[in-house]
Specification:
The complex is a heterodimer of chains A (160) and B (393). Chain A is α/β, with parallel strands linked by helices and 160 residues long. Chain A is 21% helix and 29% strand. In chain A, the strands form 2 sheets. Chain A has a 5-stranded mixed sheet. Chain B has 393 residues and is mainly α. Chain B has a 3-stranded antiparallel sheet. A 3-stranded antiparallel sheet of chain B has the order 6-7-8. In chain B, a hairpin with a 2-residue loop joins strand 4 and strand 5. The radius of gyration of chain B is 22 Å and the shape is globular. The chains are: A alpha/beta (160), B mainly alpha (393).
Chain lengths: 160, 393
Amino acid sequence: MSDQAIVEKLQAKFSSAVLNVVEHRGETTVTVEKEQIVEIATFLRDECGYNFLCDLCGVDYLGQSPRFMVVYNLYNIAAKQRLRVKVPVEEQDANVDTVSVVWGTANWHERECWDLMGISFNDHPDLRRILMPADWEGHPLRKDYPVQGPDREPYQGRLS
Amino acid sequence: MAVNSETMTINMGPQHPSTHGVLQLILDLDGETVVNATPHIGFLHRGTEKLSEHRTYHQIIPLTDRLDYLAPMSNNIGYVLAVEKLLGITDEIPERAKVIRVLLGELTRMKSHLVWLACHALDIGAMTVFIYCFREREHIMDIYEKVSGARMTSNYFRVGGLADDFPEGLEQEIRDFAESMPGHVAEYEGLLTGNKIWQKRTMGVGKISAEAAIDIGLTGPSLRASGVDWDLRRDNPYSGYEDYDFDVPVSDECDTWARYHCRLEEMRQASRIMIQALDKLKPGPVLADCPQVCLPPKEDVVNSIEGLIHHFKIVTEGFKPEPGEIYQGVENPKGELGYYLVSDGSPMPLRMKIRPPSFVNLQALPQMVEGKLLADVIAVIGTLDIVLGEIDR
C-alpha cells in the first residue's frame, strides 16, 4: 500500500483527528490530535501493518503554538515502508497518552522524552528520568535551557 | 539487609568489566536466579543532541564519531546520508564516494563485530579469542589511520562525499585484508564452535521470540537471530547497496548461539561486499559538485581569492537546508541507527534525534534474563552487543 493509500485509510477512519499531511523528500508526515493517539497507533499497527516503532521523540518549537510536537517514526517490516506521525502538545498541558501498550519499545523512548523534553506520558508504567540523574532539575533539550547548563557563564572559547 | 530475606539486591556496574562501559544493573537475586533486573544508564551522557542544535551541519560530524565509538564510520555514513536527504542532494553524490562509503561501512562492521566477539568470548571465559580478534582489529585500525589520520574517531565522511581520496596503494591493502578475513573467521570458529563450554554457555541462553523482539524494538543481528528477516541494506538500500550481492543471515533459534552464528556470517558477507566494492572502485571525484554545500578543493583555497571566500563562507556560515524534516535509518553493526533531522531553514538543525540501536536493544535485557541464572546476565550483555557511548549519547 502506498503512503497515499495509508493516509486515505487513516482519514476515512479518523477524519476529524487528522490535522495535516505533509510530504517532504519522499517521506510522509501525518499530524494527528493527541487525544486519539492510542487509537490511531493501534489502528496503524493492526490494520496498516506498522508493527515497528523505530523512534519516538519530542521537538521544541519555542515561540510557536502549540510549542511541542511528539514524533513517532514507524516502520512496516513486511512492506518495508516508513510513516511519521506527529501530535501537537501545548506547553501548559504537556502530556500525551502513552503508546507503550501498543509498542513495548516506547517505554524507554517516552522516559527519555520526559527526561529531556519535559513532556509527560499518561499511564506510563515507569515514568522516571533515564539519562539525567534522578534529582536533576529542568529538561535540557528544551530550547529555553542554556546549552552550557544552568548557573554557568556561556562558553566564550569558540571563534565562530 | 537481613540474612534471611528471600531476595538479595546487588549492584552490577557501573564499574564492572563485563558491562562494556558504564552500565549499572540492579539485580534482585533469589540464590543465583535473577528475579528482577533494572538497567540504569546515563553515566556517559554528553548531550550530543543538545550540542548539535548549536553546531552547523558540518560541525556535527565529529560528534557522531563518538556515539558508537567502536563503529565510527558507520555513524558518519548515517549522519551524512541524513543531511544529504534533507538537502535533496542524494542523487548528486559521486559514484566513487558511494562505493568507498560502502567499503568502509563494511570494514567498520567487521571492526565492531571483532570487538563484540573478543569481549563476548572473554566474558564467558574463552580468553584466547580476544587476542586473535584484536590482531585483526589492529589491522583495521591501521587502515583507518591511513584513510582518515585517526584510529578511532575517523571523521572521514562529509556532506556531499568524502574528506579526501584514498592514499596510494591502500586499495590493495584493503583487498588483501578482505580476502584474508574469511580464513580468520574460520579460525575463531575453530576456537569456539566445537567447544563444549562455549556451547553450554550460549545455547538456549537469552532467548527472545520474534514477536517479543519486534515489540521491544530489537534491530540488527539480534533481531535476525530471532527469525525476522529484515536488513535495511537490502530492504531500504542506501549508498548504492542495491548493486551488491550479499546474503542476510537469519536464524530461528532466538538464543545467544544463534546470534553468535549470525554475526560471524555477517563478517563473511562483509568481506564479500568489500571485494565487490573494490572491483567497482573507479577513479573519479569524491565530493559532489554542490558549491553551496561542499568545501572547495584545497588548491583553490590557497591560490585564489574566490576559493578562499567560498571556503570561508561555508566554514563560518554553513549551509541552510529548506525547512522540513526527514528520518534516515542505516544498518549499523549493532542494528538500525536512525537520524531524525528537523530544519527550520537556519544553518543549524532545529532538532537532531539519534535513534541508537544499543539503547533500544538494551531495553530487551530484563525480559531476557529474568528467571535465569546470574552467569547468563553476563552472556546476554555480551550477545546484545551494547556500547554505552551511543546509549547515553
